From TrEMBL:
Protein name: Rod shape-determining protein RodA
Keyword Transmembrane in record: yes
Topology of the protein relative to the lipid bilayer: Multi-pass membrane protein
Superkingdom in the source lineage: Bacteria
Key words, A-Z: Cell shape, Membrane, Transmembrane, Transmembrane helix
Amino acid sequence: MLTKFKKIDFTIVFILLLLMGISIAVLYSATSGTKYDGYHIRMFVYYLLGFAVFFSVSLIDFRLLIKYAVYIYSFGIGLLIVVMFAGNTYHNATGWLTLPGGLSFQPAEFFKLLLVLFLGFMLLRKRKPKLMFWRDVVPILLVTFIPFVLVMAQNDLGNALSYLVILAGMLWIGNIKYTHALIALVLFAGSVFGGITAYKVYHEQVYKFFEEIGRAHWMARIDPWLMPEKASRDAIYHTQNAKLAIASGGMTGEGYLQGETVQSERVPLTYSDSIFVVIAEEFGFIGSSVLLLLYFVLIHRLILISLDCRDRSGPYVIVGIVAMFLYQVFENIGMFIGLMPLTGITLPFVSYGGTSLLINMACIGVAMSIRIHGHEAEEDQPLTTTRYTRVKSQNP
């Protein structure tokens, strides 16, 4: 065990400690004197549990998780089905299960890691260097589509979209054919362009449709992004005040505990989804850049682990985890500066939330397990079957 412990990347551990300090400090600023006062202490406890999860998962051979990925995936699908009938509703999404002790658990968050492991298992079974459409790509699309539909039915658009981002990243590292990738890219771009155009042209009809299926609140999130002139005052309240807070932060910020907009509670959910707004207003562009730099270094270290791994499944899993983190960071920050629509995606390792933090720490634990156990190549398997391994073979 001591030998395994020595192989841990302590640069990543240091980054996690820095993110913990940022999270606790900003949560204190965002919740002090409000009904959420004390959330920073809860977050500290969650981080203690998170580090326990991180080190525990790190010591488990990740190949065992890949080996039993079918059962892990099935268990996750079962949780997603259960939560549809026995889940609690928060912010219009029915996605939480109540655990003993009054704790809440969100299966959709948990399933991100399960999906990464199962897709890694499926990619490991491919027989040719390039992914075959009917044998490889279609089954992978199907096993991603199932949880996507289940989570969409729970009214959780943010987590559902994260599954598609994970899918795209893992298909790419799995060596999808360029023709297939190009076709998918054209279809995606056409769908986005056509969807946005149709949304603007047939806005009233779209609103009536969403209202009929009980998703009228989606319009309240999309309108401020695409058609702010059509959005109600309540719909633009969140994003408008968030943009004002970010702008008022300037280069160096208004100072810790001095953010006028966030301290006056004019920005909702500053302890969770909107926590980046607190950082931007109180620490400015410099503070925001430092946070992004920490994410960059974390992603860079994860990619280095994948490049150093000799087991084929390691890079698959790492890229899935990286895709998940990149999506969360981009979506969370983008929705407050007008790049993305408002969703319920939290900022990794910073926003308050036990489930999301523990899952993120488990993901880093899996990546560390790959670093510890991934130096022995698989038997009877060629190494040059992923984009990463082809790069390594060309640059010895």
